[in-house]
Amino acid sequence: MLLLNTDRIVSGVLAGEKQSIARAISVVEDPRLSPESRQIIKGIYNHTGKAHVLGITGPPGIGKSTMIGMLSKMLSQKGHSVAVLAVDASSPFTGGSLLGNRIRMQESLSKFGVYMRSLANRGLSGGLSRSVWDSVMVLDAAGFDFIIIETVGAGQADLDVVYLADTIVVVLAPGLGDQIQAIKSGIMEIADIYIVNKMDREGSYIALKDIEEFLAYSVQGEWKVPVIGTNSLTGEGYEEYISRIISHRDFTGKDSRTRLRRYRYELKLALEDEMKQKIDSEIRRLVNENAIEDMMSSRTDPYTAAESILEDLLSSDSAD
Amino acid sequence: MADGKNQSLFKGRPIKILLAKPGIDGHDRGILVLAKAFRDAGMEVLYAGLLPTPEEVVETAVNEDVDVIALSLLNGAHMTVFKKVADFLKEKNINDISVVGGGTIPDPDKSKLEEMGITGNFGPGTTLSVIIDHVTKRAAEARELKML
Amino acid sequence: MDKVDGDYWKKKIEKLQNDNPGNNPEYSRWKESTLEPWNKKTNLQEKEYINSSDISIKELYNSGDLRKGQEETYLGSPGEYPFTRGIYPNMYRGRPWTMRMFSGFGTPGDTNSRLKYLISHGESGLSIAFDMPTLYGYDCDSKRADGEIGRCGVNVSSLRDMEDIFDGIDLGKVSTSMTINAPAAVLTAMYIAVAKKQGVPLDKIAGTVQADILKEYIAQKEWIYPPEAHLRLIRDMMVYCTENTPKWNYISISGYHIREAGSSAVQELAFTLADGFYYAEMGKKAGLDIDKFAQRLSFFFNSSINFFEEIAKLRAARRIWATVMKERYGAKSERSMMLRFHTQTSGYSLTWQQPLNNIIRTTIEAMAAVLGGTQSLHTNSYDEAWALPSEEAVKIALRTQQIIDEESGMADTIDPLGGSYYMEWLTNKLEEEAYKYFDEIEKMGGILEAVKKGYIQREIAKTSYRRQTRLEEGKEVMVGVNKHAEEEEQPISYLKISPKAQDDQIEKLRKVKKARNENEVKKALKDLEKAMLDEEVNVMPYIIKAVEEYATLEEISNVGRKVFGGWKEPVIV
Predict the structure, then answer these.
(1) Interface contact B29-C261, CB threshold 8 A
(2) What is the mean pLDDT of the segment spanning A294-306?
């Protein structure tokens, strides 16, 4: 069945062809196509590392999608090429999902050459799934200047974005106790930039002050976290927003810590994947008769047996 | 499609489907029901919302690399508008995205649409399971062509 | 909007619940001593009985199910507050409901001959449907309009088309109902311009535009600008028409489309009335006297297949509107409290399978509308599930109404179901559930906010999906579709609109543009833009001026698109 020409996909991605980019993401999204995904990632990795990755997160229903539409439009009008990855949760019961972001963003997309893709987050632990990481690499290799990742605004995926993105934007809106929710969920701590969206709403100024107060009591690094009010309908606040993104890009360009964190996590994910595959493929050999006999005669317990099997495996690998 | 071979195609990545009403027509009861039904059948569903142009529908379908585009119109303009979607796909040399249709489509138009590769063309009162089976079959065809 | 009384709905619900019956000893006794033993003996399979509003129905109702003050407070007598039993003292004895059949499609020329035919047969109430490009504010030569010209109604791109529609028809002598929403102000302006050309004084022109934009965002989804912009245009039209065209009804608040979009009866009831309350507040806020304009708001309901539920819905609607107009909006005149409405039988309930069954469905629905006290009625034709209606089918639909009126005796006495335990209980129940929705909507910041957030649309989509699932599971039955089905071919019968209609319209528009004074058109559009930018200015005179210079529907709409922008609806699914 698998006659997939990964070389052609790789060259298409590197040439920035939409169809190849789209197909490459489909491949890295498909866990059955792990060998092909690896071939693609190996083929493009040399060309990654140039894009600036923006992670945008915040509670649902506060106009993140509209905001990203406006942001990507303005970035591309300033001559940057932009790709957007919208990550939605999929149902743990049916595996199905409604990828709802497209509806709000499409208008700004086609006209401005923004590439937009929705991904169902099928990460088992609720964190950002591997496919999101690989998709970012595909977009990076395709030469986009900015890659914007939108997460759904609930759960681990929003926190995981910290490992992947160069700049984290946390979006809040006035009212509804969002700020309190945000503090509880831990996303307040990860922001590089705060946006208070819908500045036309009642209570927006108070929301802005609330966050500034929160920041005053938290530990700040060298980067001073800005709080910006925006209105996605009028474009108010976007010039400042974009200039802060650019200055954060310059800041992280000098300070390699963010990138190191990303490479470290990338390697960790790849390693986990590798180990899982290795163990899966050799599980029959590893679950060996000797250990089972020892367990039957109560000479050992399953944990001790597993520890010693893994130890043997790792040391034999390094001896190769 | 109940046949096991096709089902296994979607083990790794569920069927991805784009729902669209590419004409000026706001009757969305049917398409909203289908969106939920497809989701509950385990598919990844993109709803292009109201009033996208045929160009936008095709562009979205390509960017998202969907398996199926499902079009719905109840305003009688299907022969013009569905055809545009088929034409844009052809223009871009895309044969690995299947197109299905639905709405108030008289029988004589159905055969013409099928010649353009737009199948199904279900009317009101069609049961969800019939539509889901058809979409699954057409998605399997698309996947074979994608070699995924 | 004005903060009227934030707690009004909550207090209302408390009051109703306070008046609700407690336990029902006679029912319990009967159930235990007579019903249950019988069911046991006959081995009755327990089944769930629920209606579209998800209300479960008992096997029996008696006087113990009525409210405290049922007769005096909640029922009253016909022609008297709260109008539960009807708005007129004599109802159909005074005159039968108006049998209004909605029609019209093709080119302005086709529509003109059709209207003249109707007038020569004694009709004076004209009803006009428009095609999709017109409803969305596009001209016939727009790229978006390709393939859609004249399909679902007549195409109007400029004043010339309106002139052609009414060529040889004296606007002083007819009343015209126009089913138009987003561009309602422009079409009203064109109608006014034609009247002026004919020399008919504006206080003589009579008719209705639908102009209910809220239900567009909720259900029919035909809009051009964001909600606030359309509401402002409607406000301007309300003010202009209240002053200049006293016989022009400017809003027909429509539940019909909300129901067709898949809502339940109670959702139709609640969302439609909530829209009505919004328009009432808007009029007040624009400085109009409630007793001057409320009587010009009329309603448009759906009548679907659950007979008693539909009648109860219509009775509840009258009671709620009267109560709220009086208590919350300070109406003094009884005319402001009377809910007048047109009813159309449900299109959603019709099937292409075994189409003659649709005649029976429509009959049941028409009976419900009449027993619910409607002022006018459109009965659907049995072939509407797959085609524009044939003449024969239209005739049967009309005969259905005539049989109900003249043979059945159903119109002989007023509100014949009043006092039925079940009917009164169900009316009360729907009323209470509607109040709960009003409270919910208020908590979300009002109907406009609830619509902008997609809450109302999601509620409807949920109901619609639940019904479809129940149909698939066979818990709900559609005869000929999921039960008693037969192998059959879908009938072939549909109106061929020749592509020539489109070409002719485009050619005509080209000529109109060539003949007009471009400088005057530009100036009129520029002035309109300025007027639109200033919230305090009434745009109606500017729109009238622009149509008189033959600025096209799309050109006028584009001024609004530039000033107000477009609209993307929130995520519904």
Answers:
(1) yes
(2) 88
